[in-house]
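## retry 2 of 3
previous attempt timed out at serialization; input unchanged, resubmitting
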Amino acid sequence: MLFTKTVGSTNFDDTVKNNNIIILDFWASWCGPCKMFSPIFDKAAAKHRDIFFGKVNTEDEQLLSRALNIRSIPTIMVYKDSTLVFEQSGALPEAALENLLTQVKALDMKKVRQEIDQTEKDHEQ
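## retry succeeded, writing output
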């Protein structure tokens, strides 16, 4: 049984808006590291049913990939409460992915938003 969903330009905004935690795997069929990471991602999706696991095929979703500044694959993006909280290129080992998910679940989003607001204010000055 598949626990991941396909995400693209038609459902990206709704996916981010309507789910508490979203982890996206940007991949392509020709990408060796993507193929190695896929079973790790799928295993985590089966284990963490409270998280939305989505896959974005960069070949099919070139405009979305460009809009999100995807420069290499695989790339992982994690959103919590509609806010991007993590982005990294390169495949993650299983233990690192589990650690990331634990940290994201524990994030205090009020504090994260305060830090984002402060950073934006600092850049305006």
